[in-house]
Each structure stands twice: as C-alpha cells, then as structure tokens.
Design a protein that fits this description.
disordered N terminus, two-stranded antiparallel sheet, alpha/beta
Length: about 425
C-alpha cells in the first residue's frame, strides 16, 4: 500500500510541475512569438520606408535632371509653317486627357473660359487647367469674360492676371489671352461698346506685354453675318459715342453697310493675334434646322464673299486680307463646328459635320490662308439660346464620327506633346 501510495504522490508532484510549466511556458512562447513578429514588422516597415525614401529620392533626382521650363517669347507662339490644332472642350463632360486619347493627338491649344475679374476659385480652376495642358497639350487660349461689364476691369484685376500668367508660363505653358471675345455681337454684357472695349483691351494688353513675356493678346470678333443686329440684347443707342463709332458709313443707321470689325480694333501695338469665330449655324436664320454646309462656305465667310442660302453678305469686309495680311497678324479660328440639332430631323449628323470639317481642313484652305495659324474645334453639347434647345457640336461623342474626323485631319496640323520640363523655381 505505501508503495502504491508513494507512487500516487509522485504522480501528483509531476502533474503539479507539469501544470506549473504550462502556466508560465505558454505566455513565454507567446511573448517570444510576439517579439519575433514585432521584429519582423519593424524590419518590414523600415524596409518599406527605405524603399519609399529611395523612390522619392530617385523621383527627385529625375525631376532635377529635367531642364527648367523656359518661357517662350510671345512672338514665337505662332508656328512658322502649318497650323496649331486645338480644342474648345467642355471640361465637365470630358477631361483633356480623355479627349487626347480619343483623338489620337494631344491638342496644341486648349481653350479655357473664366469670368474677369475672377475669384480665388476661378484662379484655382485656372491652375488646374494649366496642369492638364502641361501634361496633355501645349498652349492655353485663355478667354476672359467681363460678365460684370467692361468697367469692372480694374488695374488690380489686371495685376492679378499678369501674376497668374507669369506662374503658368513658368510651368512651361504659353498663354494667348482672348479678352472679351465676340464683342461685335449682341449676346454678351461687353457687346456693342467699341469705345470702352478698345480702352479696356489696351489696358490689359499693355500690362501683359510688360509683365508676362510668355503670353500674347488675341483680338477676336465673331463673323458678322446679319450685322448690326438691331433690337437685340445689348443694342447700342443712337446719340451715344459708341453709336457714332459704329456708324462707319455715317448715315445715322447701323446695318451691313457699316464695318462690323474696325470700330473694335484696338491697334497693332495691343494685338498679337487676330481671331474670328466661324461656325456653320445652318442654312437660314432663325437657326435650328439641320442643313449640310454649302461648298466653300468657310472660305467665303472668312473673306467676305459669302452669297448663299442665308443671303448676300458680300458687304462684309475681307477679314483675312484686312487683319491677317494687311495688319500682319497670325490668324486663329478660336472656335468652329457645325450645328446638329438632335430634335430637328433632316440630314444625318455625320453628313453635316463631315461637309464642314472637309472645308476647314482642306488643302485649299491651307494654300489660300497661309497666315491661318490656329484652328480650335468647338467640342460642346449644349443648349443654345439662338436655337432654344440643344445643339451637339461635338465630333468625338459618336465613335463613327470621331473615327472619320481623326482620319480627315491633314498633315499640316500641329499638335501638342506635353511638357517635359521642371517648373521655374522648383
């Protein structure tokens, strides 16, 4: 019995020791594993941090290896041969990078619109647009819209503009400033005010020329078919200095006998580029019906020789000869496209748009207008007051039309390549 009892006591002690071992061995093992995992985690974290620092250093070295952006002189912005292809794009519908991918080319020019004077948010939007152009374009056509009237264009606003232009130019993005465009129309708050317009344009131009050598000024009226738009919005009143300036025929009335462009021209010293908005709005006024453009309409309107379905407009001046040739300025078509009203029926969208782009990009256009240095397609699908409804001006929204358009682009057009330089001061 005692031997048996003694055996029982020995087992009990061994079990107690075993239990005691378990009680401290498991936490120790866990602690050892935790230390192991912690060391591994720290080691991995350090390695990741080192890799990130190395990548950042490599990126910084690559950035430093890039040349500093040089500010192009405004006189060099027009190509010596060929024509810059650009786009007037709805940024809310399609970013510039997507448009460039769909087109197969980075546009040489991208149009931006901003109210002037502009807000801090407008300034932020402007910088964002410049960043997109830096990556997927080349040059900005900055359209300043004095929506509060020409009297709101103050010296402080102009000074702020010049500082922003210097910043954008320093990022490798040239800018052509289109101030208060289509001033000879009737649809903007700055319309039909030649005296005030010339003064405001000259103020802006003087400041830009003095302070932002990488930026140029564009004077850009609209094609003046139907001028002088009596009884429309912003109609000028008889007896005012503006009416006197517009009455170039001195007959006491404003009509097609008056020059629709010259009263607004601020002079060669203020103007670096001239531009003319030139769209196919249809066959006859009022607009809204779909119609295939007449042959040679683009060239005839640019030279004041149009006599077609919308009437005889040959009293208009030859804009190309007067301003691109006689004044020696590079000519831009800041916006062009052909009207397609989805609600109107009639000819097919592709037929209308193809007939227009075949004129705009024809070999005849290139030969006839050697001073034509910029063409920007108006890539918007939007409501138009003149139509009282939607107009689809685009050529990249429908794949078949986009493919036909890109195939028709001639080899004399010049595109962007993005900017591979380091912003000044970085």
């Amino acid at each position: 019995m005692p031997d048996h009892q003694s055996t029982d006591n020995s087992l009990t002690r061994r079990e107690a020791l075993a239990d005691r071992f378990k009680s401290w061995a498991l936490p120790v093992a866990v602690a050892v594993l935790a230390v192991g995992f912690g060391v591994a985690s720290i080691t991995t974290g350090l390695a990741d941090r080192n890799r990130a620092a190395q990548d950042q250093s490599t990126a910084a070295e690559a950035d430093q290896a890039q040349p500093v952006c040089e500010v192009a002189d405004r006189a060099s912005l027009a190509p010596s041969s060929g024509t810059l292809f650009g786009v007037n794009l709805d940024p809310a519908a399609k970013p510039l990078a997507q448009y460039a991918t769909e087109l197969g080319h980075k546009p040489a020019v991208s149009v931006s619109f901003v109210d002037f004077p502009y807000t801090d948010q407008d300034r932020t939007n402007l910088q964002q647009a410049a960043a997109q152009i830096r990556k997927d374009g080349h040059m900005m056509l900055l359209t300043l819209e004095p929506q509060k009237g020409l009297s709101a264009v103050t010296p402080d606003a102009i000074e702020g503009l010049v500082k922003d232009l210097v910043s954008i130019n320093g990022q490798g993005v040239p800018v052509v400033v289109r101030f208060a465009h289509e001033m000879n129309g009737f649809w903007f708050p700055w319309s039909q005010q030649p005296v005030e317009f010339r003064a405001a344009f000259t103020q802006v131009a003087d400041a830009v020329h003095a302070g932002a050598p990488g930026s140029a000024m564009m004077w850009a009226p609209s094609y003046a078919g139907g001028y002088a738009y009596p009884g429309r919005v912003y109609d000028v009143q008889p007896g005012t200095p503006d009416f006197t300036a517009l009455d170039t025929s001195d007959d006491g009335a404003l009509n097609m006998a008056d020059d629709p462009y010259a009263p607004f021209y601020p002079g060669d010293a203020a103007v670096d580029w001239v531009g003319l908005s030139l769209f196919h709005w249809g066959a006859t006024y009022p607009w809204g019906a779909n119609a295939v453009p007449e042959p040679n309409k683009f060239a005839d309107q640019l030279t004041g020789n149009y006599n077609g379905t919308n009437g005889d407009e040959r009293l208009l001046p030859d804009f190309y000869t007067e301003y691109a040739v006689n004044h020696g300025k590079p000519l831009a078509i800041p916006g062009t496209a052909a009207l397609y009203n989805p609600a109107a029926g009639g000819p097919a969208e592709a037929d209308i748009k193809r007939a227009w782009w075949e004129q705009v990009f024809s070999a005849r256009t290139h030969a006839q207008f050697p001073n034509l240095k910029m063409i920007n397609w108006f890539e918007w699908d939007k409501d138009e007051a003149e139509v009282k409804g939607r107009v689809d001006w685009t050529v990249t929204s429908t794949p078949a039309i986009r493919d036909a358009f890109t195939a028709a682009l001639p080899d004399w057009l010049k595109y962007g390549a993005g900017t591979n330089c380091r912003p000044a001061g970085s």
